[in-house]
Design brief:
The chain has a single domain, classed as Cytochrome Bc1 Complex, Chain D, domain 2. Helix 3 crosses helix 5. By secondary structure, it is mainly α. The relative contact order is 0.19. Helices cover about 40% and strands about 5% of the residues.
Length: about 110
């Protein structure tokens, strides 16, 4: 499967063609996101759909959620209930650009 990903590094934004969003689901599986989350049902963590509904439209949503994906949540950065998200380094190796792409995909979930 071909993936089309274009990045604009000076803006730190990745555009993922909608037809290739299934590649992002594959990445979410590979990076173990789906161990605690699903696209449309709350599990240990909230669904991507609920995350998108809560944070879409906020000016700092992309940056804030990327930080949570990379560093985990604790203390004041817990965004959903009492269960804390561990940092990505405790789960898998995750590059910053991968976190950026995953968060952009999550925020686009409807």
């Amino acid at each position: 499967m071909k993936k089309i990903i274009a990045t604009v590094s000076f803006l730190s934004i990745a555009f993922i063609a909608p037809a290739h969003a299934d590649g992002m689901l594959d990445m979410a599986k590979q990076k173990q996101c789906l161990s605690c989350h699903s696209v449309d049902k709350d599990m240990v963590g909230p669904s991507f759909k609920n995350i998108a509904n809560r944070f879409r439209g906020l000016n700092n949503a992309q940056t804030m959620l990327q930080e949570v994906v990379m560093k985990g949540s604790s203390g004041a950065t817990v965004h959903w209930g009492a269960t804390k998200m561990p940092p990505s380094s405790a789960r898998v190796e995750l590059a910053e650009v991968e976190a950026m792409m995953l968060v952009q995909w999550i925020l686009a979930t409807k």
